[in-house]
Amino acid sequence: MGNLHNRVAIISGAGSGLGRAASISFAAAGAEVVLLGRRLSKLEETAALVKAKSQKEALILQTDVAEEQQVQDTVAAVIEHFGRIDILLNNAAVFESGTVLELTSEEWQNQIATNLTGPFLLTKAVLPAMRKAKYGRIINITSGLSWSGAGGYAAYSAAKAGLESLTRTLAGEEHEHGILANLYNPGTLRSEMHATGKDPAVVTPDLIRLASLPAGGPTGTIVSYG
Length: 226
Description:
The chain is an alpha/beta fold. It starts with 7 loop residues before the first strand and ends with a strand. The chain contains seven helices and seven strands, in the order βαβαβαβαβααβαβ. The protein has helices spanning about 15-30, 40-55, 70-80, 105-135, 145-150, 155-175, 205-210; strands spanning about 10, 30-35, 60, 85-90, 135-140, 180-185, 220-225. It has a single domain, classed as Rossmann fold (3-Layer(aba) Sandwich). The chain has a seven-stranded parallel beta sheet, sandwiched between helices. Pfam families: adh_short. InterPro entries: KR_dom (IPR057326), NAD(P)-bd_dom_sf (IPR036291), Sc_DH/Rdtase_CS (IPR020904), SDR_fam (IPR002347). Belongs to the short-chain dehydrogenases/reductases (SDR) family. GO terms for molecular function: 3-oxoacyl-[acyl-carrier-protein] reductase (NADPH) activity.
């Protein structure tokens, strides 16, 4: 599935769903994993599973990715602990319904903050370390709602469309620094956001492949499950 031996991977939204599954799989592939999320108890559950599956101790950093100072402090703590950052998986998300007419400004801002501003803040914070190392692999989780125009999820859909544009821009800006940025669409996963769907573990091999791309590998692309 790819070798992440001794790579340092930050995973947002690591307390459940895809973030939890990715944390376990990345550690099993050899990575040192950093778990980000707002709910400490959920992060501790993930860390226990990481240790059970890989014998590795995950670094837990309770973080709201929409809060710039928290993000900056978190990234500084990772660099202090490990000395570098190799992989960033922007997975944290808020998925709430609401049409353009129904959404309040606050509801709109809350979803944009986590789903788009959060990945921007984390990416901006890790780039100096990645540029210094001339190596980085950034994976942003997207959704078919970014382009399908399905009604009822205006803020989420807009945020994911923005994230796709941001990723392509990032790929162009950072390629010369050895940093690859790609999007991954896992489809519908069974999680706290969806009662039905695939087991998140089935898509983690794709994430490991994106996290272990060789120098000169694809960047600015969208990979979809299946």
